[in-house]
Amino acid sequence: MTLSPEQQAEIDELRGAAQPTLRAVAPGMEKHLYSAIPVLDHGFVRVIDYMGDDAAICQAARVSYGKGTKSVQNDEGLIRYLMRHWHSTPFEMCEIKLHVKLPVFVARQWIRHRTANVNEYSARYSILDREFYIPAPEALAAQSVVNNQGRGAALEGEEAERVLRYLRDDAMRAYDHYEEMISQDGQQGLARELARMNLPANIYTQWYWKVDLHNLLHFLRLRADTHAQYEIRVYADAICNVVADWVPFAYKAFEDYRMGGATLSATALDCIRRMLKGEEVTQENSGMSKGEWREFVGVLG
Amino acid sequence: MTLSPEQQAEIDELRGAAQPTLRAVAPGMEKHLYSAIPVLDHGFVRVIDYMGDDAAICQAARVSYGKGTKSVQNDEGLIRYLMRHWHSTPFEMCEIKLHVKLPVFVARQWIRHRTANVNEYSARYSILDREFYIPAPEALAAQSVVNNQGRGAALEGEEAERVLRYLRDDAMRAYDHYEEMISQDGQQGLARELARMNLPANIYTQWYWKVDLHNLLHFLRLRADTHAQYEIRVYADAICNVVADWVPFAYKAFEDYRMGGATLSATALDCIRRMLKGEEVTQENSGMSKGEWREFVGVLG
Amino acid sequence: MTLSPEQQAEIDELRGAAQPTLRAVAPGMEKHLYSAIPVLDHGFVRVIDYMGDDAAICQAARVSYGKGTKSVQNDEGLIRYLMRHWHSTPFEMCEIKLHVKLPVFVARQWIRHRTANVNEYSARYSILDREFYIPAPEALAAQSVVNNQGRGAALEGEEAERVLRYLRDDAMRAYDHYEEMISQDGQQGLARELARMNLPANIYTQWYWKVDLHNLLHFLRLRADTHAQYEIRVYADAICNVVADWVPFAYKAFEDYRMGGATLSATALDCIRRMLKGEEVTQENSGMSKGEWREFVGVLG
Amino acid sequence: MTLSPEQQAEIDELRGAAQPTLRAVAPGMEKHLYSAIPVLDHGFVRVIDYMGDDAAICQAARVSYGKGTKSVQNDEGLIRYLMRHWHSTPFEMCEIKLHVKLPVFVARQWIRHRTANVNEYSARYSILDREFYIPAPEALAAQSVVNNQGRGAALEGEEAERVLRYLRDDAMRAYDHYEEMISQDGQQGLARELARMNLPANIYTQWYWKVDLHNLLHFLRLRADTHAQYEIRVYADAICNVVADWVPFAYKAFEDYRMGGATLSATALDCIRRMLKGEEVTQENSGMSKGEWREFVGVLG
User: Fold this and answer.
1) d(CA D170, CA D89)
2) B66 to chain D: closest CA residue
3) Between chain D's N and C termini, which has fewer beta carbons within 10 Å?
4) What mean pLDDT value characterizes chain B?
């Protein structure tokens, strides 16, 4: 991971300067502020700011449900109750702002989560740096033979070498040409907004990304999932660790009810009831398709 | 305005306890934290939390526009530039959380602004308090005779007295019956979620409302406007004062470009050009309808 | 249910005039167009327009997943796959526009679903009609004694009569005073935007509500649920019938995976695995709280 | 522009098959359905579906404002009034669904408009086609020397040739290597989700994009503007023509109030008032910065 010297100087300055505030402070989060968490070969996640903590979730819920929440004894119990029953608005009362450096093809997946605020580095205005994601050998995966969007084992030997050579050489050449095209030494220089079109999708971009906790957890559920593409999952994993320090009760409930949980169909629930009564249930008599049955068996693991 | 003793105790406790943070702190905002700003007869606005300041707007813009923003000398200039050219995303990087107590008919207008997070007191779970908005004599306005949604002068004499008597008596009677219906003394007691339907729209509710600065300014532009209903305008005015202390550069730019500005049509701009050339422009030769012309003359004041 | 004579005339005119279109047409939906489906004592749901059908969901999915979706044999299988794996964007490609007449306290719940477009009748501009929701005897439920937001059995005898008398008399009196306050016979007349505050929450309002199918199904999952308040559930039920005619495959998948399904936590899944192995699992050794366990037993019912 | 044979066959089939519907039909729009409007060298815009027309905007507005809108004589006058006073919700009652083929760097700008529904072709699942945007000679613009994000005159002679050669050769080589990397002839074959990272930003992608009229007009205001990048502006221009045929009154009002209009600050309005009184106003005594003054003079131009 590479922070520019200016970015490092900014971090050092900011981390030196604690100020008093009357707002809610999440102690576990202060340690993350500004420090860059390395992800992939040149990327990072930095916490720029946050609002609220576990108590803020409960405070908002208690405004809604008034005396109705008094019966829940404590904050952790209340948070588990809210998560279990899909009460999303109290979790929206916490907010986080991250600075993320990431490859463009990852950014294109990420941005599909619409309920967030984004300021991305603009290659219309400014010149991109010569930084490209090149997979580590163990991440150089083959196409899955069973799944259109999945990965198989890592490539090996000559095939792996050739792929890495293509990725490296094409990126370097594309960047050389990018520089030559925009250069104004002895020529007009192509507009930046055009020249960028020559750059491949593994070039790094960066953005500020601000999102509320409810929508962040939704993002993490999809992107920290084992079916997510590895290159976005490592970002999601890094953010999971941050969230665990920020709102520990909410994160634990999220792990239990979302990450580790599963949604079962009416048909699947019925199969479980039959199985618990001792009936032999098979795909054929389950009412499920083969694909569904395979997933069902996977859940019951 | 009435804070409950519990709410006052909570404020006192929270205001006493400054903690160190590495996050951006807006000094003008710390003084507002938790303190209730009275609005109408029983309402209030309280700042519960905030994220960011004027510098945070610039920091996000500089991520986007990179070296492109270096030419703007200072933060205030950059913020004015962003506001003038409708760059909304940097303003989305600031966030505020308010606790608001307000009459239901005001809440119904307010909630139409969808890009915000809300936790409202639930009358399904809990019992509403006996607090109703009764307009002050000077706010007891007649229906405008020129405008379907406007107000005329204040009612006077017997008519004013009768209106106030109706509002007060009907509210008290409705609340008496609400209490009787839900009472479980010697009867089953009607479900709260049903009993609340007897309560008029001037009863007070309360909510936590969290919104980013861009969407807040959009709300304020519409609701602090002279055409907004007085009862929501006073909330918008109170929030304007808070925003001016929070992000003074952004607020000043907002006043110049939004609150005090005007959008002119192609036709109106053409009329101005003709007038500046010395031509006599009238409604008849302007290309505008009577209504448009009246508004145009109002803008040129 | 009461349609005004103007509304009925409009329906008659519109239903008479089929025109040719090249767009996707959902035969099951054409029969619903404009016809008002009665809900509660004076409310209704009317389909004003729709976009797309089951085939449009698949068409959009096939753009995304290209040849990847060819392996799924048919539209119904593909829709079930999309629903099971929470692919929301193809369902967003269908849209519906409804005209709904509903009590204000129902509208206040409904509007919390933010991802929709709404045009509500404005009581600032116009005068509300004298129409109030008065519960049918069987819907006049007592407060639940076990659940803060629930309902118990219907009230009976003198208590029921007294409640109905209060609701009717208070509504009539409030409306009489509303009319007197805004009247301009021999007086100035209170502004409509103020007078409306005297009206109780069981008065009817109406709006146009436009929403995509994904967000509509989310709404229906929450509001057609047995825990939803009866007065909004009857609207959700009416809309469920419309959706079943509009996109039958999507609706059937929704019933199986959402309405009839359940999300189980990691802990709950673990308990099921233990039970299937023959272990005796009780609340004490389940790792669940009493509340969770009660819900878990309910699901396995 | 290249439609695949399958796409052309689909168009031909769909255009042949008019069916009766009771919904609102916009005659000007039916002719656009499915036909691909060519944009850039390989891109297109196709109307897949639409909901509503000018009359639907008025119908929704009349629900809101009731008798208050009767005073506006006709639909066109009402639409102009709504547009002038920023009433956005009636315009949200119309919806359009487009199929768009566009270069990835254009897609990256486009997707920043969040209030829309999108299904994009997935290069995780499927293999992208060998189609790249190569600018026409007159679009091969130099970087502006006065504006960080602007364009100057077209490149000429050897410089132009060199740029085109780089763009073409790098795209072809990148695609050759993409194909070789995913090939499973005698090797494992790199996962598609990884191989795509080698492709430059001028490769074409495609998506279904569905948006309401209010948000579409906002998109068009920004992207059909002279400051927008040429490569997205040509898409916006193509859509403008479609909208003009779909909702002619709304489009005309949009042209007058948005595209041809301008928002002036309080300071600028004050300057106009002074000028109309005969005062000599210069940048120095205007209260504006040099940049603002330049823009102000441009508006009065």
Assistant:
1) 47
2) D148
3) C
4) 93
Locate all alpha helices (DSSP H) within chain D, ordered by sequence. Answer: 5-15, 27-30, 54-65, 75-84, 104-110, 157-182, 192-195, 213-223, 230-246, 248-254, 266-276, 283-286, 290-300
Would you say D66 and C122 are in contact if contact means Cβ atoms under 8 Å apart?
yes
Token pair belonging to C117: 């477009």
Amino acid (one-letter) located at C45: V
**Cβ distance of A142 and D188 shorter than 8 Å:** yes
Closest by Cα among B127, B126, B186, B188 to C142: B188
d(C-alpha D246, C-alpha D34), whole Å: 14
* Residue B177 Cα, gap to closest chain D Cα (Å): 32
Start-to-end CA distance of chain B, whole Å, equals 38
Residue contact C256–A276, C-beta within 8 A: no
In chain C, positions 17-56, which contact chain A (CB-CB < 8 Å)? none
Separation of alpha carbons B153 and B144, rounded Å: 8
CA dihedral for D238, D243, D244, D246, sign (positive or negative): positive
- Our CA-based measurement puts residue C18 at a distance from the nearest CA of chain D, in whole angstroms, of 5
Q: Which of residues 51-110 of C touch B (CB under 8 A)?
A: 103-105, 108
CB contact under 8 A, D196 and A105: yes
Q: C120 with C106: CB under 8 angstroms?
A: no
C277 min Cα distance to partner chain D (Å) = 38
Which one-letter DSSP state was computed for residue C134? -
| Distance between CA atoms of residues A265 and A262, nearest Å | 10
Handedness of CA C246, C252, C254, C255 (dihedral sign): positive
| Closest C-alpha among A101, A99, A120, A98 to residue A216 | A98
Alpha helices in chain C (DSSP H): 5-15, 27-30, 54-65, 75-84, 104-110, 157-182, 192-195, 213-223, 230-246, 248-254, 266-276, 283-286, 290-300
Global pTM value: 0.95
Please give the CATH number for the structural domain made up of B5-133+202-259: 3.30.1360.170
Compute the distance between CA of residue B195 and CA of residue D12 in angstroms, rounded to an integer: 60
Per-residue tens of pLDDT for chain D, all 301 residues: 567 777 777 777 777 789 999 999 999 999 999 999 999 999 999 999 999 999 999 999 998 776 545 555 689 999 999 999 999 999 999 999 999 999 999 999 999 999 999 999 999 989 999 999 999 999 999 998 877 778 999 999 999 999 999 999 999 999 999 999 999 999 999 999 999 999 999 999 999 999 999 999 999 999 999 999 999 999 999 999 999 999 999 999 999 999 999 999 999 999 999 999 999 999 999 999 999 999 999 999 8
Residues of C in Cβ contact (< 8 Å) with A249: none
Tell me the pLDDT tens digit for each residue of A85-122.
Answer: 999 999 999 999 999 999 999 999 999 999 999 999 99
Residues 211-250 of A with CB under 8 A from D: 229
Q: Is B223 a catalytic residue?
A: yes
Q: How many CB pairs under 8 A join A and B?
A: 154
Domain C5-133+202-261, architecture per CATH: 2-Layer Sandwich (3.30)
Give the ipTM of the model, two decimals please.
0.93
Give the Cα separation of C257 and C253 in Å (integer). Answer: 6
Bridge partners, residue B206, by sequence: B101
Written as six digits, the tokens of B200 are 């008029």
Q: Of B62, B196, B223, B273, which one is the catalytic site residue?
A: B223
CB contacts, 8 Å: A25 with chain B: 19-21
- Among C86, C262, C292, the residue with its CB nearest the CB of A264 is C262
In chain C, which residues have their Cβ closer than 8 Å to the Cβ of A77? 289
Of D14, D25, D125, the CB nearest to C66: D125
